[in-house]
Amino acid sequence: MSLVAISMNLLLAVLLAAALVMGWRLNRRLKALRDSHEGFAQAVADLDAAARRAEQGLADLRAATDEAAETLGDRVSEARQLSTRLERQIKEGPALHQAEEAERAAERRLGSLLSGAHELRPARPRAEPERAARPLSRPIGQPVSRMARALEDDLFDSPDAAGAGDLRRARR
Question: Which residues lie below 8 Å from residue 138, measured CB to CB, with a gap of 6+?
């Protein structure tokens, strides 16, 4: 072998060693790239799932917002109605108070008229009602007190009695 052949073989061996080192380094880089590609694919899948959850969350949030807006609108409408009603009642308050006072005064006047009519009513003879018309509130033969007899007479008088017309006029 000549020196040229040996030098060519050595050069070839160095080039093969360099190619082997480069291939080994390239293999490591490709392996890292494949690993990062799988990690990237997993990250993309996770990101896609998160995006779907976010879209669902936004849809739920929109629905809740629409419902809240509707509820709030109803409450605002109801509040406006109640405010209008309260304002009207505040405006009508003094008139209502005056009407109540007038009603109380009318009741007092009516009460005084009725008591005056009762005091001015002439005494009328008490007729003994028929036995069949009287209720049997006590055993027969028992004496009846004067107060119980007056109460029964007042309760069971006939409607066309003389004092009934006076009482109707007093109420008017």
Answer: 144
